[in-house]
Amino acid sequence: MSRRRPPPFGGLALGLVFFCLSLTPSLVPRSWLVQGAVTGVSATIGYALGVLGSHLTRQLLPREPRPPIKRAAWWALGVGGAAAALLAVVLAGNWQQQLHLVMGAEEPTQPAYLAVLAVAAALLVVLVALGRALRLAARAAGHRLRRFVPPRAAALTGAALVALLVTTFTQEVLVRGMLGAADTSFQTIDETVGPDLEAPTSPMVSGGPGSLVAWESLGTQGRKFVDRTTGAEELDAVLAGIGGMEGMAEGTPPREPIRVYTGLETEEDVGRRAELAVAELERTGAFDRAVLCVAAATGTGWVNPVAIAALEHLHAGDTATVSMQYSYLPSWLSFVADRERASEAGAALFDAVHDRWSQLPADERPELVVYGESLGSYAAESAFEGLADLRARTDGALLVGPPHFNPLRAELTRTREPDSPQRRPVVAGGRTVRFAGVADDLHRPDGPWERPRVVYLQQASDPVVWWSPRLAYREPDWLREPRGDDVLRRMRWFPLVTFWQLSADLVHADEVPPGHGHDYGTKVVDGWLAVTRPEGWDDAQVEQLRAHLG
Prior knowledge:
This protein has helices at 9-22, 32-60, 67-103, 110-113, 116-145, 151-191, 219-227, 232-243, 270-284, 305-314, 331-337, 339-357, 375-381, 387-393, 407-414, 463-466, 477-480, 497-507, 523-531, 539-549, and strands at residues 258-262, 291-296, 319-324, 367-373, 396-400, 433-436, 453-457. By secondary structure, it is α/β, with parallel strands linked by helices. It has 2 domains: 9-184, no CATH class; 197-459 and 520-549, no CATH class.
């Protein structure tokens, strides 16, 4: 009867190292359940690398250490490993409490965080068992192939066949199947009209009287978008309370803002949806307004209501905003699966609006601005071939929480001035583009800021901004440079581990208090003040507007 061999020493040792490193803080707070998942995956990766290292070591150094040395090493690993794991979990709980405190969030209890051990251990066992099952399958395939090819070639071929089957199953069945099921599921949700929403009575929004777009076709986020329009009477009351209308838009009373939207159910073809949106702009008189905003949506078609309300308040309702849905999936899934549709929709909508806008006499055109948040910023950038094109065809842009794959933002960051940090790059002296994590950043550097202006809002603790596949093997500049106030100094970069930490952070990026993570709160007010030209606003009034919107 053969004796079962213990797990490789190198696998357990490196798995323990990855276990402890995964408990170090990242950008946003994590619950014990999410932390357990991150730790379990990280420990499994460490274990796998350690097993591989042990195998290579045995091949190169066939003589094993003497039994007394092996026993001492196993005792050290057992006792020291248990102590290190417990200490790491306790420290992780403290770091999470610090992170909650920095962000003004409710602090977790320390005992609950000890559950990380159970979740991580369970996941590690499952993943290691799965890995062993795949290894046995590869051996079995290789054994059968020995009848046709030499043993070494059979083993390699068997492993390759299993790897191919796993990859194909993952991509074609799991990923595509899950995304297809999710798309169908979220489409059903999107078509459901909430009981708290009714068709609008204003002709100034899509879905209202005289609209070319059916209310039912707008989708959940489209219906919310038009439902949240600030009426002229409400604007009048708010602006009067903020400090009167003296000097604001030459004392004229507020107007009813225009909001135009087309959903996936409005028209199947993206080009036709964009054309219909322009027809809606024509119907509502949007080209006679002071400001026309093309707002690229995110994921399910969501447009940040605070950002659009801020623009409407700053310009006393003399605005028109148009947006278009391109997906049923929520943002975190669209982040992975819907980039192509986001790019196509962003370009189609802006091009259609710009074509009509450019036909107007230059002195009669509204100020044409672009807005996008998260995946919406990627969609907004997709309409332009570069910074020069954006400046040539717009009067400014406000892009919030841009992902790493935004081409324009990536190019601007890469070409930043050498002494400027990655989280707040300075490009060409800040004459055209400025990056800000807080409002004061918009005043840096001190030199001139020409129009049209482009503003990127990117918070130091926003994982959507800083996540990248390169985190798996390269330390980013933003972790080597001075950090934002809400990023713990204890955060460090570790190969593979930091990638999984920020991947988990993406799911909870907006579940933090405003002004942190992926929730930009009322910082959009400062962005619009810089990009557009609202009249009559002083610092005190701006503070009151922030308080109202917040």
